[in-house]
Fold these 2 entries.
Entry 1:
Amino acid sequence: GTLRSKIPELVDALTGRFKAHHAFMARLHLDQIDAQSRIIDALTERIEEAMTPFRAAREFLATIPGVSLKVADVIIAETGADMSRFETPGRLASWTGVCPGSNESAGRIKSAHILPGNKYLKAALGTAALSASRSKDTYL
């Protein structure tokens, strides 16, 4: 009801003042977006070529709830898909920086900080954990 009286003002607002300069700037931004998209496509193709020897490991990792193909790519890229260099799963967790700290003395728990580790693998595992916690009908 109240907007009926403002129809001429609304038409002016929607018409706007899009001049040749604005079109030029919009074209520049769209060209940049297109160039970045081409670069992303080229890098994606290169990653797919590099992941060819690890295709089986990638598919097995992707069967874990929360682990997508991109997270599997990060896990393989950061660990080399050779888990024999880590003696136990705890060593891998420690190297990644996701194992819990135990800073306790005389029954008092002292403040803990984020452990150093492989930040890329830690971020990928965090993403996988959040995805798994939100997924339904899984054993997790």
Entry 2:
Amino acid sequence: MREHGGNLDLAQQRFGGRAEDWIDLSTGINRLPYPIGEISAHHWQALPSRSEIEALHQAAQHAYGASAPVVAMGGAQAAIQLLPRLAPRGLARILAPTYNEYAPVLSVAGWQVEEVRELDALAGADLAIVVNPNNPDGRRHAPKDLLALSPRVGHVVIDESFADAVPEFSLASEAGRPGLLILRSFGKFYGLAGLRLGFAIGHAADIDKLAAASGPWPVSGAAIAIGCRALRDEAWAKATSARLLRDCARLDAMAHAQGWRLVGGASLFRLYETPDALAAQERLARGQIWSRVFTQNPSWLRLGLPGAEAEWTRLAEMLAR
């Protein structure tokens, strides 16, 4: 497995403790998850029906403001694995630095992969990848700039895994355009990454390809039931987005007091420049708080947002030591 957050087993090996003792801030997953409530036995025992899957697609269209076709998958990562099938092999350009699964997935499928630093440099590619907001630095691109890019590439894929709290940056409403594909993660914003649920939204021809490659039951009955319930809960989404905005400011203030500089971030994580990220990670780990560091940049430390007030208190105490 490539370097990712969520590697709590490594933290336990190095610093001890049980998984339940740790506050895992190494990911961008909401630590105050959606309350799933009761799930009927039917959703665990029966194969999902076409009508149930279609109900989930409609819930996703409603939540994301999309009218284009949707296909549910086992997380946004499942869609990433299938991207090489969108078109004949050619040149793929990725706006980097970004999520580190795109380049190897395309390379192993025989695509020529180039990483570029500016949006305009994606032009001319057969496949262009933009993560918006970006992971790990939170860089954002205006929808009009991304739409202007679309006619200049074969396919443009916009990964909106961290866009739930900033819908004004989403292009889901434009996803019916030929060559434009939007990826959405359910598990991050709703705090249910273990459910393995995500969506691709796009032109019918592309969605048909992805749906065919995903097979007849791409997500579980439980994922359908929980997804339908959560995606239609507008009050929860609105309240959560407002809370995350406040929590980002709160975490930034705590980091600033340490002399850390904000590099950027999204609504579920913040990226800071520190004198020594490994030292900062170890300092927090001694209080069983796990963070993420980056081998390519030894000064970068990424923190997700604490959830319950007790987690904020523990983080403050460790930073104060």
